[in-house]
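Dear colleague,

Following up on Tuesday's group meeting, I ran the structure prediction for the three-component complex that the binding team flagged. I've pasted the input sequences exactly as they went in, so you can double-check that nothing got truncated or mislabelled along the way. The structure tokens for the whole assembly follow below. Feel free to forward this to whoever is handling the docking comparison.

Inputs:
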Amino acid sequence: MITLTVNGERVSRHVDPRRHLIDFLRLDLGLTGSHAGCEHGVCGACTVRVDGEIVRGCLVLAASLDGAEVTTIEGLSDSGEVADLQANFVARNAAQCGFCTPGMIMTAADILAHQKDATRAEIREHLAGNYCRCTGYQAIVDAVEATLEARR
Amino acid sequence: MNQITPASIGLSREDLPNSYIGRSVPRPNAPKLVQGRATYTDDVVLPRMLHTAFLRSPCAHARIGAIETAAAMAVPGVVRVFTGADIAKVCDPWVATLDHLKGMKSAPQYPLPLHRATWQGEPIVAVLAETRAAAEDGVAALAVTFEPLPAQTDMESALAPGAVVIHPELGDNLVFTRTAETGDVAAAFAAAHKVVEARFVTGRHTGVTLEPRSIIADYNRADGTLTVHHSTQAPHMMQGVFAKQLRMAEGDVRVICKDVGGSFGIKVHVYPDEVAVAAMARIMGRPVKFIADRFEAFASDIHARDHRIHGRLAVDAEGRVLAFDVDDLTGIGPYSVYPRTSAIEGNQVVNLCGGPYDFRNYRCTTTVVLQNKAPTCQYRAVGHPIATAVTEGLMDLAAEALGMDPIEIRRRNLIRDDAYPYTSPAGMRFEGLSHHASLDKLLQMVPVARIRADQAEARSRGVYRGLGIAAFIELTNPSPFMYGIGGARISAQDGCTVRMDPDGSIVASSGVTEQGQGTEAILAQIVAHGVGVAVERVKIITGDTQTTPYGGGTWACRGAGIGGEAALQSAIALKQQLLDVAGAMLQAAPDSLDIVLGRIVDKAGGAERMTLHELGRIVYFRGDTLPRELQRELVQTRHFITKEYPFAFTNGIQASWVEVDPATGMVKLLEHWCVEDCGRIVNPMLVDEQVRGGIVQGIGGALYEHCIYDAQGNLLTTTLADYLVPMSAEMPEMHVGHVETPTRESLLGAKGAGEAGTAGAPGAIMNAINDALRPLGARVHEQPFTPERILRALGTIA
Amino acid sequence: MKWPAMTYHRATSLADVWAAFAAHGPSVTILAGGQTLLATLAFRLSEPGMLLDITRIPELRGITLQGQVLRIGALTRHVELGRDLLVRQHAPLLAQAVPHIAHPAIRNRGTIGGSLAYADPAAELPACAVALDAVVVAASTAGERRIPASAFFTDLLQNALAPGEIIVAVEIPIQPSLAAIDEVARRSGDYAMAGLAAAMRVHDGRVVAPRLVYFGVGRGPVLAGAACRALEGRPLTAESIAAAQAALTTDLDPPQDLHGPSEMKRHLARVLTARVLNAWLRPTEMAA
């Protein structure tokens, strides 16, 4: 049995040790906004926050998270923390199929929080672990850059 | 967030109603994507649903021996194990050939093979279990004997004496061959001032949709229906496939396709494991889910572009193209893929080589052979990047041989903008292209003089940069000449039903589908424009065979050109119907009225007469007040198919500016430009982003992506750490420009835009790399252009 | 693929670890950051009976200066290594290495102890540890044991830990030196096709104790003995650098991989040798 906080709500569940965090979120909690793209730690579609830091959800054992604080795209959206970033993603068409987008937003939120003066190259570098097959990345970089500029 | 108003897209009241066309309206379905509220197939959970995993062949070619299932059945959670023979009881095999591809042959393919495995990764046995994890445990507990057979992996020797004939009943490994020949090629080469030639290789690569292939099939014994939730580009086609293979009536099969996490051609094919899922659901009478994992995706999604091409080009002293002579060979795996077949890619190479240029003498042969690797089939820009790289690589070699500027040789040979209609030597009919206008536009965008100065200065410091150009044509809006005439149930027409509900809101259902490219956005724009309402009043339904008009779905860049035109026609028809009803209510001639932003107005003067909301109230709730004979069905359906031209060709031109590190062989992409002409642009932002995404997919093939097999047919690139896809840090800034030459086949005038980026990027990058390497005496023509290959070309390594 | 069935136990002290080893023996696999281990479970290449989570053991945390040694707790995550002021001051090579390691989300979880234990020949931190002449501190019920990094990486993905031992810390000797890391990778964050972590001192214009450690070119981090001998005691000049490059023929026999043949990797190693050492030419010449 683990007890943790997910998107501000306390959750207690029995969890099989073989369950990774993304399957826990998707299958046990119905939080389907986080996606499993490769399940071996490369694509970034499963990026979520654990204790305030972004992680690969497919490389975290759900059973290890007793007492942890987890934030997913659902919680991040509800909090309004990145409403401006999300609006810029829409305005700039920085999401096409959208499968990478929750992970991309989680990673971009990390830039907004910690690298307020990031250049385009630094934005690209920070997003370099998040695979997007559709956009070619430029619109995503534009949306993050526009959000950083508007917040300055 | 993102409410679309005239003001928010920079419109005044006077601009409406006909100004949604050509505006960068944000996608109405984008907010759910950025908030994680989309519904992909794996997000769907059904009662009593089972999960499946497949035992896949570890061998490239093997006889399937004993299949021991007892241990698998003993695994907790495992419900049932299916072999090929089990599935074949309810499911027929298919053969992927097209009648119009003369002489084409392939072998019957079962969902799970009965006797032989013919590629590593082929699904052999399926395990059904309560969870995916338990199904995988079951697979691990299976004991299947594979008796290895010699494998034919090399396409070059597939037709040679001694080759392993993969399907003995076919006699040999030849699937298809075609030669197009026009003019007198031999004489042209004999008379040429210069002849250049090269051997080109395009690397076998694959689509890597971030959402893997996903399907839930649910057979309901109570009513005899099969409902399939499927991540697909072509719901109606799949409806037909499932019905035919499972011996059901087409009407008893429903395919539902909600959000799709990327397709690029990967999800328009019939996959044996997916048909097996439908068959298992049919047998079990309960839902069965299959979500391919990434390893399965690399081993069993279609691959593409495994070509070796010898190309020759003859030019005269003025740099005029005299003749192209091209010999293409492609290995397609052990089966042609159903129902589009795996001969189309090679056929496209024949259709497209030399495509942008005005010349007379042409010979091109494609030879399509079987091999024991994963099947290949159509993937974004089918054949285009190959034909463009060959054509443009040869053009640069010719320019170099002549001492001519690469831009100048293109200007001398591109088909004149006033030459249309024009039939190419390969027999392609062009309605209207804009090569010279596109080149001019490109040269406005690319600072060639500054780049050449920078290049010279950099070389003096030992830094090697290069500029590469690639012109291209792109086939879009296909007619039945692509597949239908070959006997495939692949619809080239598409339909749209537009209705108005009581509150004046508009619902349009379309047979084309949304894969992320923005189909629903442009359909909403077109319908809003056609009816005369604000775009946020329009809701779009796609991806359900039971609620949308029959259509072909999304492929070959037909969404805007075909689906968009059907939407426009049906929207205009609904508008006329609304005006007829309004005229009766208002005692006015319908043609004296107009609809602007959801209000009936006087055409002259624009005075508001009534709202659509009011009109809806009366029609739906007080029909008694309307004239008895008045037609008041506020719903219209139109279908559209192109009739004059087999394909709506588009054109464009790209430029790539790169830096090559001769010490490491690494290529740095500095900047990239693309000008393309997709006819009428419905939404410029969406078109630009299609082009950018397409360019990066082309970059993937040019620099990174490669499905590498060893000589025994073992796939070595089985993870995302080994199969390299383009990531953000290495991608260049891309500039996109447009020329608009609308097709006259439709009112809308739209052609396709989704494949232009991919078609031209590899050729432009190849030419840029070779421009950079020229002072060092090195050239590369084998994709991907890896550090290893560049270092070999430089002679740094043997 | 889904991870195989296994059990999970969280240790909150080293005593918990020893108890788990005693009870479950070789079926215990240590879970630290998990950024490599859990990815390999998805390949179902290994099936650990039990994952023993050591991430909440306080003794394995912390970075402290202890005399002439910088002690870095095994659970120090890459992100912490990159921003820690003591590391930046006393072992800047490690901080320099961090941006080369995968991506931010990985660096938030992956640990130095895990990276060393996994002993991936293409990983940065094992090479840095050897270049800095670090000492791996292993512990077991028998107490602590100090293993020089140069003796720690015994073969491909193999280390010198005995059964029942875990890494508790890495100790870096502090001495003023030149140190740098460079690598050639296809994409940002990828494992390097070839990499070099180098450290040396310059005394009276001559190279002292050079340690050129190559990664991605062998069965572990490769301390290039012949190349180091080509530099030792000589001024750092174009000639001595060329001699070090030439000596790599003796030092390196890289296995070919998907990126290219052995010859290419040796070539890249030479290129990196020049790039790293050339950057130090000027101060050396000034010192001379």
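The longest strand of chain C covers residues 194-203.

Cheers,
M.
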